[in-house]
Specification:
By secondary structure, the chain is mostly helical. The chain has 2 domains: 7-142, no CATH class; 177-397 and 448-460, no CATH class. The chain has helices at residues 7-20, 31-51, 55-79, 86-113, 119-142, 147-160, 190-197, 201-222, 228-235, 237-245, 249-259, 281-285, 289-331, 346-361, 365-378, 392-396, 400-408, 413-429, 435-438, 454-460. The longest helix has 43 residues, at 289-331. The radius of gyration is 23 Å and the shape is globular. The chain starts with 6 loop residues before the first helix and ends in a 5-residue tail after the last helix.
Length: 465
C-alpha cells in the first residue's frame, strides 16, 4: 500500500535531489540536514494533530510547538553562526523560527482538514512543503527584493523622461546589479511602467506586488487549485521567487489560465513575454477562428492605443534591443540561466523547440494547450525559475504522486529539465483519465478540485473536429 500512495515517489524525490544538485535552503552549509529537520518537524506536527483529535490535545501541541521553536531559536543564536557576526546569527535564528512556524502551521492545517489521509503521501507532500519554505526563506535571506520591478521602473522612468528605454548595443561585461540589465519587454507596456515610476516607490511596489499576487491566485483558482493548496503553491519557488523579484511572469500566468476558458486571452501573452507566442498556436490547431480574431483585435487595440505615446521608433528599438541582448547572451552564456542555449548549440536549441511544438500540437483540447505552454518553456531564449510557471497546467493534471515529485525537484539546471522531461512523459503516456488525479482524491493529496480541472474544461469547451 505504501508503495502505491506516495512512499515510492518520496524515495524517488530524495534520489533526484541527490542527483540534480543541493537542496538550497536558508542554511547553505547544512542544506540536507535542514531539509530533513524541517520534514521531520512537519511530520511530527501532522501526525500529532491527526492522532489528537480533541481540542485539549491540539492546544497542548500548539504550546509544545512554540516551546520547541523557542528552544531551536536559542540554539541557533548560540551555535548557528560564528560569535563575531551577531547580526547574522540573529537574522538566521529568526528565519529558522519562521520556517518552524510556517512548516508546522501548514502541516497542522493539512492534518486538521483531512486533506491527506494516505501515510506515504503525507511523507511526500510534507517533504516538498518543507523544501518550499526553506528555499523561500533562503531567497529572503539573500535579499535583492523586487529587482525585476526596479528594472521595469527604471525603463519606465527613462521613457517618461523622453530617454531611450532599450539597450541597443551588446553589454561589454556582466553587471553586478540585476536591475541594471536591459529592458526587453514590448513598448506597449512602457506607459504602464512610466506611470508606476511616477509614484512613490512604496506605492508602486505595493500596487505591483498586490496586483501580481491577486492575478496569480486568480490563475491558480482557474486551474482548479483550492483551499490550503493555494497557499502551498504560492510557496512553490517559481511562484514565490517571481513575487519576490517582482517579475511579470506571475501576473502573466492569469492570461494562460484564462485561455482555457476563453482562448482570446492567450493572444495577449506575447505582449508580456516573447515565448508566450507559442500557446496561441492552440487556437489555430483547434480552428477557433473567432477567439483568435477577438484576441488579435484586443492585442492590436492595445498597440494602437499606446502607439501615440511610444511611437513607431520604440518598436524598432525593441527589436534592436532583443538582437543586442542575444549577442550579449552568446558572449556571456551564464545569462541564459536555465535555458537550453546555455549547454547546446543554438541550432540544436531551435530544433528541440520545434520538436516540442510538434509534440504539443499532436494533442487536442485543453491537453494540447497545456502541452504548448510546456513548449513555450523549452523555447524560452532565457529562462529563470519563474518562467516554469507556464508548466503548471500540464503539471496539475497528472497523478498526484507525479505532481508532488515534479514540484519538489530543486530548480537547478538539471532539476528543472528533469522535471520538464517528467511533465512531458506524464502528459504523453498518462493523460489525466482516472478519478484519482482528475477529481483530487483527498487520500492522495491532489491539489485540484472538480469543476475546473481539465476534464471539466474539455466537456465545457469541446474541440472542433
Amino acid at each position: 500500500m505504501l508503495l502505491r500512495d506516495g512512499l515510492a515517489a518520496s524515495i524517488a524525490l530524495a534520489g533526484l535531489l541527490t542527483v540534480t544538485g543541493p537542496v538550497r535552503t536558508l542554511d547553505v552549509d547544512h542544506t540536507s540536514l535542514a531539509w530533513l529537520g524541517a520534514t521531520s518537524w512537519a511530520l511530527l506536527v501532522f501526525w500529532t494533530v491527526r492522532l489528537l483529535p480533541d481540542r485539549l490535545g491540539r492546544t497542548f501541541m500548539v504550546v509544545a510547538g512554540i516551546a520547541i521553536a523557542l528552544v531551536v531559536l536559542a540554539l541557533v543564536i548560540r551555535f548557528g553562526v560564528s560569535p563575531e557576526d551577531v547580526p547574522a546569527r540573529i537574522r538566521t535564528a529568526w528565519l529558522v523560527l519562521a520556517a518552524a512556524i510556517i512548516v508546522g502551521g501548514l502541516a497542522a492545517l493539512l492534518a486538521s482538514r483531512g486533506e491527506v489521509s494516505a501515510p506515504g503521501m503525507s511523507v511526500l507532500i510534507l517533504a516538498v512543503i518543507a523544501l518550499f519554505v526553506l528555499f523561500d526563506l533562503g531567497v529572503v535571506k539573500r535579499g535583492d527584493s523586487l529587482r525585476d520591478l526596479r528594472l521595469y521602473l527604471l525603463a519606465g522612468e527613462r521613457f517618461a523622461s523622453g530617454l531611450q528605454p532599450y539597450t541597443l548595443a551588446p553589454l561589454p561585461a556582466l553587471l553586478a546589479d540585476q536591475s541594471a540589465y536591459p529592458f526587453l519587454y514590448p513598448p506597449v507596456v512602457l506607459p504602464l511602467f512610466g506611470a508606476l515610476a511616477g509614484l512613490p516607490s512604496g506605492v508602486s511596489s505595493t500596487l505591483w506586488v498586490a496586483g501580481s499576487l491577486a492575478a496569480g491566485v486568480a490563475a491558480l483558482h482557474m486551474l482548479g487549485v483550492r483551499g490550503v493548496w493555494v497557499v502551498v503553491l504560492i510557496l512553490w519557488p517559481p511562484f514565490f521567487e517571481g513575487l519576490w523579484a517582482g517579475n511579470v511572469a506571475v501576473p502573466a500566468l492569469v492570461l494562460l489560465a484564462a485561455g482555457f476558458r476563453a482562448g482570446r486571452w492567450l493572444v495577449l501573452g506575447p505582449l508580456l513575454k516573447v515565448q508566450a507566442a507559442i500557446p496561441p498556436l492552440w487556437l489555430l490547431r483547434e480552428r477557433r477562428w473567432r477567439e483568435l480574431a477577438v484576441g488579435v483585435a484586443l492585442a492590436a487595440g492595445l498597440c494602437i492605443v499606446t502607439l501615440p505615446l511610444v511611437g513607431v521608433r520604440a518598436w524598432l528599438d525593441w527589436f534592436a534591443g532583443l538582437r543586442a541582448f542575444q549577442a550579449t547572451e552568446q558572449a556571456f552564456p551564464v545569462l541564459y540561466t536555465f535555458a537550453l542555449p546555455r549547454v547546446v548549440p543554438y541550432g540544436a536549441f531551435l530544433a528541440i523547440g520545434v520538436a516540442s511544438v510538434g509534440w504539443a500540437l499532436r494533442a487536442r483540447g485543453p491537453h494540447g494547450l497545456a502541452r504548448l505552454a510546456v513548449a513555450s518553456i523549452v523555447l524560452s531564449p532565457s529562462l529563470y525559475r519563474h518562467g516554469v510557471l507556464a508548466g503548471l497546467p500540464a503539471i496539475l493534471v497528472l497523478d498526484s504522486q507525479l505532481v508532488w515529485l515534479i514540484l519538489g525537484l530543486p530548480l537547478t539546471w538539471w532539476g528543472l529539465w528533469i522535471g520538464i522531461a517528467i511533465v512531458a512523459a506524464g502528459n504523453t503516456f498518462r493523460l489525466p483519465a482516472s478519478p484519482t488525479s482528475v477529481d483530487g482524491h483527498p487520500g492522495l493529496g491532489a491539489p485540484t478540485r472538480r469543476p475546473l480541472t481539465m476534464a471539466a474544461l474539455e466537456r465545457a469547451v469541446p474541440s472542433v473536429q
